What we know:
Layout: E1 2-7, E2 14-20, E3 23-30, E4 37-42, E5 55-60, E6 92-95, E7 102-107, E8 114-117, E9 125-127, E10 133-138, E11 143-147, H1 164-167, E12 174-178, H2 186-195, E13 197-201, E14 204-208, E15 212-216, H3 217-224, H4 231-243, E16 251-255, E17 309-313, H5 318-332, E18 343-348, H6 364-375, E19 382-387, H7 402-411, E20 416-420, E21 423-424, E22 427-428, E23 434-435, H8 436-439, E24 451-455, H9 471-477, E25 484-488, H10 494-508, E26 514-515, H11 516-522, E27 535-538, E28 544-545, E29 553-556, E30 559-561, E31 565-571, E32 579-585, E33 589-594, E34 601-606, E35 610-617, E36 621-627, E37 635-644, E38 652-662, E39 675-680, E40 683-684, E41 690-691, E42 696-702, E43 720-724, E44 730-732, E45 737-739, E46 746-752, E47 759-768, E48 774-783, E49 792-798, E50 808-814, E51 818-826, E52 831-834, E53 838-840, E54 848-850, E55 863-872, E56 878-887
Parallel strand pairs: 12-15, 12-16, 16-17, 18-19, 18-20, 20-24, 24-25, 30-38, 41-48
Antiparallel strand pairs: 1-4, 2-3, 2-5, 6-11, 7-10, 8-9, 8-11, 13-14, 21-22, 22-23, 25-27, 26-28, 29-31, 31-36, 32-35, 32-37, 33-34, 37-38, 39-40, 39-42, 42-46, 43-44, 43-47, 45-46, 47-48, 49-50, 50-54, 51-52, 51-53, 51-55, 55-56
Amino acid sequence: MRIVLVAARSEQVRWIYLLVNDEVVDSFTVETGRQPVSVSRTIHLSNLRAQGNNFTLRVVAPTTYIENDDHVILDYFDIKYRAANTLPSSGSDLVFFDTTLGVSSIVFDGTPAFVWDVTDPMNPVELRVDGNVFVDSVVAGLRYCVAKSASKPIYIKLANIVGLRTRIPSDVDYLIIVPSEFASAARQLAEWRSQNLLFFEDSVWTIHEGHVWTVKLEDVFEEFGFGSRDPTAIRNFVKFVYDHTEGGLKYLVLVGDATYDYKGYSASGGNYLPPYEPWMLLWVESPGYSAFDDFYADVVGGEGLADVFIGRIPVRSDAELLSYTEKVIAYERKLSMGMWRDRVVLVADDEFGSDQQRPSDGWIHMGSIDQIYRTEVPDFMETKHVYMIEFPRPQPYVRLGASESFIKTFNKGSLLMFIFIHGNPVQLAHEELFKLEKHADLINAGLKNPFVFIASCKVGAFERIRYPRCVAEDWAIRSGGAIATLSSTGLTLPSQNERYALDIFELLNDCGLHSLGELNMVGKLWGYSGYAKYYVLLGDPAVPIALPTPDIEVSIDDSLRKGERITWNAVVDEHVGGELYARSYGVKRLVQYVMPVSGRIYYYMRPPDAYFVGRVYASDSLSGSFFVPVSVDTGSPSNFVLFYPRGGEHGRVGCATGLRILPQQGLPTDDEPPRVALIYNGRNLEDGDKIPMKPILELRLADESGLNLSKSIGGAEPGLSFWLDASASYLDLTDYFEYDFNSDTSGSAVFRYEFPSDGGHLIRIRAYDNFENLGVYDWQIEVVGEEEQLKIVEPLVYPNPVDRVGPVKFGFGLTADAYVRVSIFTISGRLIWQSPKQFRHKGEYEPIVWNGLDADGDEPANGLYFFVIEAEDSGGNTVKVIDKFVIAK
Length: 889
C-alpha cells in the first residue's frame, strides 16, 4: 500500500500512526515549519483480510502542546490497491487513470453481457467479449462500461426539463444567489433593487428600475454542479447568466455566511454559501492564500478579476438579512441626513507591532493615512482622526483612551472611514483598539452608517470557524454598524493598501454617484497580481455613495481675527426645507513625532478641530455669524464650510478655503464666563438630586462671545469638559456640542455618562468662552443603583419572526410599579399600532398582546419593525426600550 500525506503548516512536531485492522503498520513524524510538506510512504502489508479491512490514520500532538489549540482536519485520503474485476448485479465502470499496460487481457470473475469503450462518451464502441475475457490495448485515461445484463426500453421520450438554463430572463442586471432558507427574506432586497438600481449610462451613474433575478443556491448546485456543493458551479452559473442576457449582468450578490469547513467537521455551522478557496490553500489559517469571492464573478478573462460588481451579505438568519436590507433602504432613502454625510474618519496604528519593545513597524500606517489626508481628502469634508501615536503609552500593549475615542468617533457616524492598522479577524491593533468580544455591542452609529475600508491582514476573513463573525462581518451586519466593509481575508501589503485607498478617493473626488461595487473593483485593476484580490466587499455592491457637490457660493472675509464675530453669506438656488450645517475650522498643523528607541523624526499633518458648529434653516439667501476663539493658532489656511445634506441628489456643500487667522486686537470685550445648566430627565440638576448609573445628560451653555470648542486651552484641557470627584481624567464634551439654530452664543451637548459606582459624587463642569473666560460649576449628586430606578427588563416578542396571523405578545419585566404602553413602528418611523396604557406591578411578567393588525385593520407587510415599550412610575419618571422584530409570513 502506498500513502501520500500532505501536511499543512504546523510549528509543532506531530506523530503519524497508520493502522490496518487495528495493527500499527507504519509510524513517522511530521514537522512542517512555515510551509506545507508532502510525505510519501510505501507499506508492505501482511495482515489483510479477504473482506472488511479497516484503515486508520492517527495524528498525535506532543504532550507539551496545548491540546485545545491543536487543530487537525483530515480532508481526504486515497488508497491504491489491486483487486479482482468483480461484476455487481448492475454492472460497473472500469477506469485506468495512470497506467499504460499495452495489449492486455481483461479478466472478470463473471461473464459480462456487454462491454463498451466509453473513453469518448459521445461515441461509445462495443467490444467483443469471449466468455469472461476481452482483449484491448490499455492506456491511461481508458474507460470501459461493463454490464452484466441489459434491458430494452419500451419507448424513449424526450423530457422537457425546466431548469435555470430555460428559466433565465432575457435581461438580468442584478443577480442574487441565496440559500433556500433565506429566499423568502431576500424578496425585500429584490423588490427594492428592482425599483432602485444604479446604472452607468452615458458616462454618468443614474438610479432607476432594474431587472433582478433571485436564484436558490441549491438549484445552482443541482444544475451546474451535478448536485455537488462545488464553488465552481456558482462561477459557471454566473458566467452562463453573463453570456446569455441582453444588457449584460452588472451586479452579483451572494447571500449567506461561509466557512472553509465544507465537510462540517467542526459542527460550527455557518457555511450557507461556501467560499472559494484557492487550490494551493493547504493551510486554512494561511495569511498568504485566502478565500476570495471575486472568483465567482470572473467570467471573461479567467485571471481572477471580477467582471461584474460583487458583494457578499454574510448573514446567518432571515432576521439578519431583513435587518441589513432595512439598513440599506434607510441609507438610500436618506432617513438620516446630517453633518455625518460630509465627514471622513481616518484611523492609524502606531509604530509598535508584535514586538512591543521596539518600533519595528516604522511609519507604515501613519505614513499612508497622512498621504491620503494631504493629497485626497477635500477641504470641504470634516475630518475626524484616531491616531494611536497621540494616546499615552504607559506600557506595552496599552494606548490609554484610544479604544474609547474610536468607538465614540464611529458612533457619531461618517460617510467614509479608512483604517490602516495591524489586525486579525477579531481584533484591531495589538493594543486592542477594537476587540469583538469586548467592544462589539458598543458599536451603534444608528442610521449614520459609514463605508469602512480596513487596510489590515485577515480582518475580513469571513470563512474562519473559530468564531462566527470577523470584525468586518460584524460591522457590516450590525444594524448600527457600517453600510458595508471592504477588507482582506488574508495578507496585505502596505504599499498596495495605500494605493487601493488612494484609488477609491480619486474615484469619489468627482463628487458623482458611484456604487460600492465600483469602489471594491477600482483598487484591484492595477494590483491584482498581488494581495489586493483578497479584499472582499461585505455588503450590497449596488449601494450608491457620493461626496456632496461643492457648488454653494459662500461669501466670507478671507481674514479672520481672533476674538471677533465673523459674518458669512451664501446663496442656495433651491429650497426643499431642512437645515444647513455651518462649520469653521482652525489651522492645520504640521506635527513632529519622535519615534521611541530609534529617535527618528517624522512629520504628519494633523486635521484641524472645529471651533464653530452651527445650524441654520434652508432658504434662498442665507447668512450667519460665529466667533473666532483667541486660543486658535494664528496662520493659514483655515476653512469655513456650509453643508446642505438634502440639497441635490446627495448633498451640496460650499467651502471658503485659505482663510487666514489674524492675531487679536485690543482688550477682550467680554470678561464673564459661560452660563451653564446641567439637565437630567428634562429638569435642571440640583444638589442632592438622584440620578441613575448610566444617565443621558444635557449640558446647556450660553455666552455673549460664544463657547470655546478648542481641544486644548493653553496646551491643557479642552474648552468644555466633564469631571468626576477628584479624578485627574475628564470627558471631553467639545465633540458633543452643537450651537442652537441660527445662534452663535448658545447651544448644548447631549451625552451619556456611566458612573463608576453608586452613592455620593461630585460633578464638575469646566467651560471656557472664546475669550478664555473660565466657568467652573459643581453639583453634589447621589447615584442610585439600577434596582432603585424604574427599569424595563427582559423585553421579549413572541413569536419572532412573526410567521402567522394572530396574537403577538410583548413580554417584559419592571423594577417598579408603572403604567406601560407598547408602540410599533415601520423602519421609516411610521406608527402602525399603539396599545392603551396598562398598569403592571413590579416583578410581574404579564405581556401586552397585539392582534397582528395595524390601526386600519390590515396585515402589515413582511419586513423589519421597531417596537417601543414605555413605562411611567408614580413619580412621573419614564423609561423606554426600543427593539426590533421581524414579520416573515
